[in-house]
Every structure is written in C-alpha cells, then in structure tokens.
Amino acid sequence: MDEMLEILKNLDWSPLFISIKTGIVATIFSFFLGIYAARKVVKTTPGKKAIIDGILTLPMVLPPTVAGFFLLLIFSRRRPFGIFLFEQFGIKVVQTWLGCIIAATVISFPLMYRNARAAMEQIDVNLIYAGRTLGMSDTEIFWKVVIPTAGPGIASGTILTFARALGEYGATSMLAGNIPGKTGTISQKIAMVIQDGDYMTAGVWVAIVMVIAFLVIFLMNLISGKKMKNVKRW
C-alpha cells in the first residue's frame, strides 16, 4: 500500500491530461462528422448506402496499426500531401499532438457514425411527414425533430466515441509516436512501463483506466435507462 501511495505521489500525470485532451477534441470532430455522415447515408439509396457504410465503418474493423499505416502514407512529410501541408501552412502531423487527434478521430469516428445512423433510422417517419405538413424546412426538421428524437442514441455514441478515443493506441503510436509530455497517452504509458518491467506503475494506470471505463459504462446505462423508462416491460 505504501509503495502504491509513493507511486501516486510521484506519478507523471501528463499521459492522463494528453489522453483527455485528445479524447475531447477527437470526440468533437467525430460528433459533427458522424452526424453529418449519418444524415447523408440515411437519405441515400440502398446500393450507395452499402458502399459508403462499408467505407466509413472500415476503421472500426481494421487493426489500428493498419489505419496508422495509411495515415502515415497520407501525412508523412515524405509524401505529397504531408509536404503540401508543411510547406504551405507549416502544419506537421507526424510526431505531434495533432497526430494524436487525427488518429483518435479516425479510429473513433465509426462508433459515432453508426450510433447516430442507427438512432436516425429508428425515427418514426410520420414525425418527418408531420413536420413537412407544418411547413418546416428539411433543416428545421433535422434540428427540431430528428436530433431531439435520436438524442439518446447520439448521446450514447458520443460517450463511446470519447472512450474509444481516450484509449486509442495502435494508430496513435504509429502516427504521433510516444513523446513524453507531448504525444504520450495512457495506453502508450502502460505499454512502456510494462516493457520496463514496472508492473506496479502499470497497475496504477490500469486502475485509472478502469475507473474511467466504469464511469463511461455508468453514463451509458443512465442514458439507456432514461430512454427505456417509459417502455412497457414484459
């Protein structure tokens, strides 16, 4: 117990702060991109929907290192797009916190997209027709009818997206590296201290991650409970 308290006293908390900052920013990007993509896919034809859905969901089923490989191909300063970003705008992605954000966004985006799409597809189409009958535009229907009705599903997707972005490891380590105080996240810290044989410090970080995971599950259940409270149980 004394050893654990000593570890907590001397613990470098930067991986937690970096992970939280990365998770928040990645969730914001995934939130708006996911809702936008879900809205477009729901309204498209079944054939196009199958193709677009497969492309947008791909990062969720591919190993994160594969996604990291493709991100390196895109943003490396040895590649045309990476050279363009650096020479024209001074933007460097590889080995930077921006790389953490991009990697976490790409990996967590499918969770936001699929939850938002599923929630929108379950909306009673009569609500849409009623809005049109009342003279509402498509934009008004989307923000005043679709979003509030799909709210619980979107909220659940947002929480899951944050949790996934917070714990991202594979793509982040390939694109952003593991620079202490800059790109070193909790997942990378755990892997590093285990490689050093420091299982006690790794256990402390694992405990911190488990507490965060429990809070995420609690929020998910809380949202689901509010959604189902008026549903008749069998």
Task: Characterize the structure shown.
This protein has 234 residues and is mainly alpha-helical. Helices cover 78% and strands 0% of the residues. The protein has helices spanning 2-9, 14-42, 46-61, 64-75, 80-89, 97-121, 125-133, 138-149, 151-166, 170-175, 186-195, 199-228.
In short:
The protein has helices at about 1-10, 15-40, 45-60, 65-75, 80-90, 95-120, 125-135, 140-150, 150-165, 170-175, 185-195, 200-230.
Notable characteristics:
single chain, 234 residues, mainly alpha, 12 helices
Task: Give the beta-strand count.
Answer: 0
Subunit organisation of the chains: single chain
Termini Cα gap = 48 Å
Give the integer mean of the pLDDT values.
87
User: Helical element count?
Assistant: 12
Output the helix-strand order.
HHHHHHHHHHHH
What is the CA-atom radius of gyration, in angstroms? 21 Å
Structural class: mainly alpha
* Secondary structure: helix percent: over 70%
Q: Any idea what the shape is?
A: globular
* Parts with pLDDT < 50 across at least 5 consecutive residues: none
Beta-strand residue fraction = under 5%
Mind summarizing the main beta sheet?
none
